[in-house]
Amino acid sequence: MAKVYNWQLGREMEYPYAGGDRERQFAAVFNINRCIACQTCTMACKSTWTHYPGQELMFWNNVETKPYGGYPRSWDAKLLEMQETLDPGGQNWAGTGQADVRSPYGRFDGKTIFETANGTSERVTGYLPDDDEWKAPNNGEDHGTKMGPDGAKLPVHQGWFFYLQRICNHCSYPACLAACPRNAIYKRKEDGIVLIDQERCRGYRKCVAACPYKKSMYRPTTRTSEKCIACYPRIEGQDPISDGVPMETRCMASCIGKIRMQGLVQVEADATWTHDPRNPIYYMVHVEKVALPLYPQFGTQPNIYYIPPRWAPREYLRQMFGPGVDAAIEKYANPSRELLALLQLFRATREVIFAFDVIPGPVAQTLNVGGRSRTIYDDTVVGYDAKGREVARVKVVEPVVTRPGSINSI
Ligand code: SF4
Ligand code: SF4
């Protein structure tokens, strides 16, 4: 095992391979608060990549309902239990505060899925879901917890559920890659996308067992494993409609709820992100710290970040997104001018946004939110593509256009 630096854990950790020579990393922010579970993203992906024989139950993108939903069934609860059994009492962030300055979340001293596998015949702790667990992608959909007499009141609802949008995290330290005995899985230098070489794969399913997010899937008709490819022709700027610049993936570009923003961040040799506050993803993850990784304690350094839901119990969310949850929700509920403006840029264009600017505008409204006075400004946010060209311009206050009665049908 090599020693690599995991900035989400605030420490070095063991991983089968030394760090890579990456230049950029595919990453995204999903705002859970906005998702309506329309599954448009799911179907955009499925109709593009996984509609062939043997892929019937393969969903590279899925949206599940927490706490009861999961695809495959109970994927996260099962691994959390395994980790707790192998590292009793260790799976917490008790060391918060002593972290390396490069970590925004504190320090996780518990064992990752690579470290709990030490001394076993496997490189990664995991499990292979059985066929029954893959059968129902919408298992538990829209099932909430029991509603109490006070019902829905912030800060935490008594009856609650939320939607969790899931794709492959194109992890900085992929468990699928670590576990593959054929070296069939690789991570690209130019964008950090993780791919399975279909020629080398022999379908041993080690990656399926190892991926903590269960985003590598077995296809019985080809006897190989397959996974999300991050729509890489789009990321490479090969899609004819994007004029040679990186373009958002199918699931991101089709999002009805405008919950998704995708980006590419510059990375250093130790897989930390190069300081770049004009990059929208960097800004939300490292400056505002409003978007958090999913189960960072597993240790793969996942690259899809979530703005956590305001209304779900904090303890549940801390286990899922780490100790940054309370501060992230506070930021989202009381956003800075820059963050409020940036949130309007989600799904404003199909090109990947590499930089943004906020142009100050006049006062639009003064509100009283939870006893606090807040001023909303009608600022303008501008997004730029890979070539520095303006590709989106949105105002905080959505313009209202009233049609003249003469053009209304009766
Ligand atoms: S398309 Fe967007 S809003 Fe609809 S389910 Fe997917 S992430 Fe949620
Ligand atoms: S989410 Fe799973 S399949 Fe995707 S890179 Fe990480 S370990 Fe591999």
Q: How would you portray this structure in words?
A:
The chain is of the alpha+beta class and 410 residues long. The protein has a single domain, classed as 2-Layer Sandwich (Alpha-Beta Plaits), CATH 3.30.70. The chain has ten helices and 17 strands. Strands 10-3-12-11 form a four-stranded mixed β-sheet. A three-stranded antiparallel β-sheet has the order 13-16-17. Strands 1-2 form a two-stranded antiparallel sheet. A hairpin with a 4-residue loop joins strand 8 (216-219) and strand 9. The model has no long low-confidence stretch (mean pLDDT 94). Bound molecules: iron/sulfur cluster (SF4) (2 copies). The site of one iron/sulfur cluster (SF4) has 14 residues, from helix 3. The site of one iron/sulfur cluster has 14 residues, from helix 3.
